[in-house]
Amino acid sequence: MKILLTTILTFQIIVLVGQTNEIQKFQNDLIDNQLMKYDGDTRISTSIDTPWMEYHLRRLFPDSTESTLTFKSIATKDSIVLTETERDLILSFFQNPDNLKLSVNPTEFSTIEIDSALNHLKDDHENQVVFISRPLFIRDDKIGVAFFSNLCCGHIYGHVNFSFYQKENEIWTRWIDISSGAF
């Protein structure tokens, strides 16, 4: 019995460590691929504002009796059709404030609290703040879903995207946007 319990506990620890490593790899890939190139101090926010996330989730809210939802890439002409179950899973995951908090810093950047981000940006026009959610993996972990924003330039300027990601050459790459923009 002790051997069985030890085996189960060991397996759970390995799975948890593997998930943490994949989450960090995912977040590192997003930052490496999407970080703007400025010479100031880049910080990573410890959380994402819930109303900001709610705004980007609005395209997922059911507005009819359709059981699927389609998102298309303008650049590649690819598309993804979500089932109602997948849509509900994404909504539930990103409405949970715990998934909008940085659990482990995947970078060498210092962290910053969300309420200090604007002051950091105003301190130097070269400074940046990155906001990144915990990723949700769907379809046998072949597709990741995450929120990413990179603000800069002395104020709330930059880009934001809530997107699907796929691996290309073992690197998680932005694939199809659910919601995105520049400001």
Overview of this protein structure:
It contains four helices and nine strands, in the order αβαββαβαβββββ. With 183 residues, the protein is an alpha+beta fold. 27% of the residues are buried. The longest helix is centred in the N-terminal third of the chain and has 33 residues, at 2-34. Helices cover 33% and strands 32% of the residues. It has helices at 2-34, 50-57, 84-95, 117-123; strands at 42-45, 68-72, 79-83, 110-112, 128-132, 136-138, 143-152, 157-168, 171-182. The strands form two sheets. Strands 1, 4, 5, 6, 7, 8 and 9 form a seven-stranded mixed beta sheet that branches. Strands 2-3 form a two-stranded antiparallel ribbon.
Which descriptors would you attach to this protein?
9 strands; seven-stranded mixed β-sheet; 33% helix; 4 helices; globular; two-stranded antiparallel ribbon; 183 residues; alpha+beta
What is shown here, in short?
The protein has about 180 residues and is of the alpha+beta class. It has helices spanning about 1-35, 50-55, 85-95, 115-125; strands at about 40-45, 70, 80-85, 110, 130, 135-140, 145-150, 155-170, 170-180.
Secondary structure class reads alpha+beta
Oligomer: single chain
Helix count from the secondary structure assignment: 4
> How much β-strand is present in the residues?
25-35%
Helical residues, percent: 25-40%
Principal-axis shape: globular
Low-confidence stretches: 4-19
Mean pLDDT: 85
Supply Rg.
18 Å
List how many beta strands DSSP finds: 9
How far from one another are the termini?
A: 59 Å
The major pleated sheet works out as:
7 strands, mixed
Secondary-structure element series = HEHEEHEHEEEEE
